[in-house]
Design goal:
The protein is an alpha/beta fold. The protein is built from 20 helices and eleven strands.
Length: about 525
Amino acid sequence: MAKKTATRKKSAAKKAAKTSSKTSAVRKGKVAKAATKPVKQAAPRKSSAPRRPKGPAWQWSAVETAAAIRSSAISAVETVEAHLERMRAVNPRLNAVVVDLSEEALAAAHAADKRRAKGGELGLLHGVPITIKENVDYEGRPNFNGVPANKDLIAPSDSPVVRNLKKAGAIIIGLTNTPEFSFRGFTDNPLHGLTLNPWDPNITCGGSSGGAGSAVAAGIGTIAHGNDIGGSLRWPAHCNGVATIKPTQGRIPAFNASATAERPMLAHLMSAQGPLARHVADVRLALEVMSQRDPRDPWWVPAPLVGPKPKGPIKVALARIPEDMDVDPHVAAALRQAADHLERSGYRVSEVDVPDIDGVWQTWCDIITNETMVMQEAGMLKVTSEDFHKAWGGMKAKANVLDLKAWMQATAARNGHIRAWQLFFEEYPVVLAPTTVKPTPSPREDTVSPQRVREIFWGEIRFISAINVLGLPGAVVPVTLHDGQPIGVQLIAGRYREDLALDAAAAIEKRAGVLAHRLWEQMD
């Protein structure tokens, strides 16, 4: 009797399951399809297969590249080979990468693929091709910094930023050009020669991270490392139509074991390492990787990468430009366009005066010039070219010569400027400012005359260099083209609020697009 009852229960359960399945299928209107075309059930498996981003691998973003390698949609070797092929195709006319690390990169790519195949832990940039600026230590190689006389400065170890990038799995395919001692805003030196802008050989690629900006814009590497003490990340980003962030002082650790002496204090406090990339998301990813701790930098700060969100809508200060700066109408139009992009993204933009931009710039100029004159000038002038002498002469001509008391007063004034800006950010968490107020100059414009150098640094890129003395984060994002030349804008935020600057840059990029895609059509 129990056996029959169990059989009946089993039969009833089967019928109930069948009825439930039929009812569910009827509700979806798919009974006939389910019965007659069971092969359709295989479709979901196809969607879970690794997908390659569109276009050749050298055109992918760093975020896309890392995801594709991680999912086995492409190997690290294939990715690196694509970037090396691109480098061979375009670098001879640009001279952006001056040390070819192809063999080393391919060996690292093979090792990366083996690691992934074994199921090892993968870094955020596993297998992703990048470049490094030739003014930080790269173990076993001279740290030339654009100066032939530095041939014996062999790096005994990787600098912190190189070490952090390698730890994250990034593959370095080459070292990029920089001017002598990375001191000019134009990238040229007697060792490697002139680096050209991929958009137009008649305009500068900027400096001092000009090789980095030119390379990443042209498709050589997904991320380019650079550094910035007076605009050397943001100026090349503007010139080459790419994005960047100059982080807060202390965000990314820095140190060169090959250096013969420690850097002066204020020069160290005003300098920052950082990434250039075609996409704001790539800049954000690289910042996370680069900012990992290294005990060799006593000024490194373990600050969080994301802070509390300001109460919305976020107020943006469109910096009112001083009357003595002659603004090109196309630059003014690009600033208005960027402001409109932010407004449409939910920000509230108002044109206001920012705290004493003229005094801030003069403080930067006085401090960096006097430290250089006391600590480095004599040694630099002995081993540098006539072009360097001309450019340096123009830079220091706008500085006040300071005795010890005046230098101390200048460093004290720096504190007051930082406080004023920090209070300003309480009301306006983001500042929208120009990178330059004029069209991009020619490749060797700083060798024309001392007067022309003063015009460039004071009259044109004042809003870039001033920010270094404050130690504030500043992002640059391209907005538009005029006569085939990129125009970018700068987003400045409070200390350790790179996230706010990058959020605003991403909002602009979403509406302006990634300019590099237009460059590649032009180049190819």
